[in-house]
Amino acid sequence: MADTSPLASWFGLRELAAEDSAFVRLWRGFMTARVMIALVLLALLGAMYAIASAPVEGWLILMCCAYLVAALAVRTLASPRIQGHALDAQWMSTIGVDLLVFAALQFMQAGGISYNPLFALPLLLASVLGSLLLALGTAAAITLLLLVDAWLASLHLDTASRFLQAGLTGTGFFIVALLANQLATRLVREEQRARQSQQAARVQIEVNELVIEALSDGVLVVDDNGIVRAANPAAQGLLGSPADRRTTPFVLAAEPAWHPLIELARLTFLRRTAQVADVDISEAALGARRLHVRTRLTATHDAAAESLCVMFLEDLREMEARLRTEKLAAMGRMSAAVAHEIRNPLAAITQANALLDEDLTQPGQKRLTLMVRQNAQRLAQIVEEILDLSRVQHEGMARSSPLLDLDAAVSAACTDWGRQTACGERLRVDLHGHGSQVAFEPDHLRRVLVNLLDNALRYASPQAGSIRVSTETTTSGQAGLRVWSDGAQLEQTVQRHLFEPFFSSESRSSGLGLYICRELCERHGALIGYQRATQAGAGRPREGNEFFVTFRQRTPAPASAARFDTIRA
User: Fold this and answer.
1) 348 belongs to a structural domain
2) What is the pLDDT of residues 15-44, one digit of tens each?
3) Which of 265, 284, 319 is a domain's end point?
4) Secondary structure, 3-state, 475-491
5) Which residue among 90, 272, 441, 515 is least crowded, i.e. fewest CB within 10 A of its CB?
6) Model confidence, pTM
7) Residues with Cβ < 8 Å from 453, sequence gap 6 or more?
8) Same domain, 44 and 163
9) Within a domain: residue 556?
10) How many CA atoms does the CB half-sphere of 168 hold within 13 Å?
11) Is the pLDDT of residue 393 over 60?
12) Domain that holds residue 382
């Protein structure tokens, strides 16, 4: 069985070599050398035969012609296949043919010339492109041929010098075979390491490019001439609009708005240290933008190597938004703890005020207790909203939401809310869900609807039908809930922050109601939004503010499960 170890042959594989490998280049070089030697032999013997300066047999010239044809055929038609230990057809067509031709020339001593140096070609071919066993075998075959030649010569001349010469030449061929094979094996190892390192570097470059492309921060690579060598999509977006995307390289000085970046890069190269600054980039199309820029110089191990300035760009608005989010999260945790501690003293104040109100008879004192009761109720509502926010943030989704009849749940919640707020005439409920069932917790849906109704009551007019709640089901089975009020249109700045925590357009509101609605809807896969909508009334249509909730569409249950539920019912 042939040896399949990594050092058994070039690259350790029995397959066609790659076109750019050293094996292919060496193979082609050896095949070209065989063609050149064949041409030289043919020209030499042909010249000696033509001028008859030395006795040359005609069949030797024919043999050289055949050798030239064989060498040309292998060079042009054969593919560079890695050789192993076996004496395959490729070995016979190269090394074997060379040994036979050169041995015939040596035995005949054509023109009185010694052809021993020609045996170096097949020996190097076997040593460099083959295994150690093939190289030593070739050296042994050459030595045997030289000894046979010496024996034939001794039959006529009776001299021992030919045997000594053949032995020394054979020993030299063995040493050359061993050294050449060891050097070739070492080169194989080095090329394998180089290819592995190149592959690892290529993979690392691809990973780095993917990471840089996906970064939310902008990355610019600038040389000392102000030319941008590379820029990721985030940097392109921060520097200009998507329609103005530039292909690298490009010059920073091409846009006047980028001059602060040029100055920062110049300082980085001049001081050879990292720089941090906030710069303003103003363009007519996009307006003014503030960027937080950090620069770094690439490390160079050679003083003559070029260093590059890497700029990290970050939008200050996004940084401020993240800081606000972190502050809000910390404030929410602190507020929940404070609200929990306030609830018990607040209940005591409310109870004491109620007991005091029972003993008072003067109208002025009654007004004071009324003020205490109203503000205590307001504080209690704020505390409850903050605690609701804490519950929403910490509630898990371990179990799936139950199926809820939308019309029945909305009707019950609206009836209770209208009774508690005494807004029965102002509230109109239109149920068109047609028995739709939605995946929602009953308490969570009631909380969403009550928060939306409280918000509508705050801005609605005192007219009848100023608050409307409706349910609907589309033809595709999508269920929805709408809460409309005839309040004035909200400003654009208010609309952008409607569902953010602690945001409110009124000083007497905690700003948590709509945020809690959004959190609960997202938890159950529903979508909540705001729009300006028109409702038809008894008179002319009225415009108002509408909050809509689109519930997650139910996945149809398998037929077997449906039959089981029917039988169980």
Assistant:
1) yes
2) 444 555 677 788 888 888 888 988 888 888
3) 319
4) CCCCEEEEEEECCCCCC
5) 272
6) 0.43
7) 414, 417, 421, 427, 467, 469, 483
8) yes
9) no
10) 5
11) no
12) 321-394
